[in-house]
Amino acid sequence: MRLLLTSLLMLVATALLAGHAPDKDDDRPAYRLFAADGKPVSFGKMAKELAGADVVLFGEQHNDPMAHWLELQVAKELAQRKAGQVVLGLEMFERDVQPLVEQYNVGELDDKAFEERSRPWPNYPTDYKPLLLLARQQKLRVVGTNVPRRFAQQVAKGSLTALDVLGADEKQWVAPLPIKVDYNLPGYQNMFKMFGGDAAHAAGVQNIVQAQALKDATMAHFIRQSRQPGQLLLHVNGSYHSDNHDGIVWYLRQAEPQLRILTISTVTQEQLGKLDKEHLKKADYVLVVPADMTKTY
User: Fold this and answer.
1) Keyword Cell wall biogenesis/degradation, does the record have it (predicted)?
2) What residues does 143 pair with on adjacent strands?
């Protein structure tokens, strides 16, 4: 009788376990990582290779929660692997507020004062504040690398010559002038197409491209200025600034060809099993997020 009861209990347990066993077809992955050639790669392998770089450019979609979460994970991992040698750079803060970034980083400025004065992006509390809090906890230096937005707006309206009137103090917030622009870079060529760069609109679109180049050149300049030999600078920026290894990457290589630079790009796809052809070689690593992922704004 006892043997029969034991057998029945085992059968019931087996049935229950079978009924609740995870089915691979029911998985709902939040992201996948791929190398440039489209081969899947683990987070650990990617992190190990990133740790060997001088500069890592994490290209995000600004409203993508998975990118923001993975940026935090990459920062944590690199801080552990390169203890005391990691600097965090952010497109989201402009050079004229760098003193405030530094004061907040060392605890001399509280949250309220910092957020009132540093012109943070609207999604700062959810998407970027965790990075700054991690930097404070891990004692990572933080640098805002972007050009003041009013300068970029002036260039978009009147070309790079609009910067000729900047005073000496203001010129400290931009890349050294004059700024060279290679209009043949894939990203800039694509901007001409997106904004209708025909003969009737060529001058206006060229100004928009110059404003983009101003941002790229300025971020590259302050990335270089902010890292010392042996340090790794992890930089967070919109994917378009580093996709296809142009934009920021191009300016970094013009100034310092020997830099070891690795890039990450964030893309969305309907399926996560394979990297779509259009995203191959877009970056050294590609973060693929489901197309129906919720957004932060």
Assistant:
1) no
2) 89
Q: Which residues of 140-150 are buried (b: 16+ CB within 10 A; e: fewer)?
A: bbbbbbbbbee
State pTM to two decimals.
Answer: 0.90
Mean pLDDT across the chain: 92
Please report, to the nearest 10 degrees, the dihedral formed by the alpha carbons of residues 99, 102, 107, 111 taken in order.
70
What is the third-level CATH fold of 31-290?
Rossmann fold (3.40.50)
Residue-range domain boundaries for the chain: 31-290
Instruction: Assign 189 a pLDDT band (cuts: 50, 70, 90).
Output: very high
pLDDT tens digits along 103-160: 999 999 999 999 999 999 999 999 999 999 999 999 999 999 999 999 999 999 999 9
Beta bridge partners of 233: 55, 87
- CA 67 to chain centroid, in Å, comes to 8
Cβ(219)–Cβ(73) below 8 Å = no
Do 232 and 49 form a contact (C-beta atoms < 8 A)? Answer: no
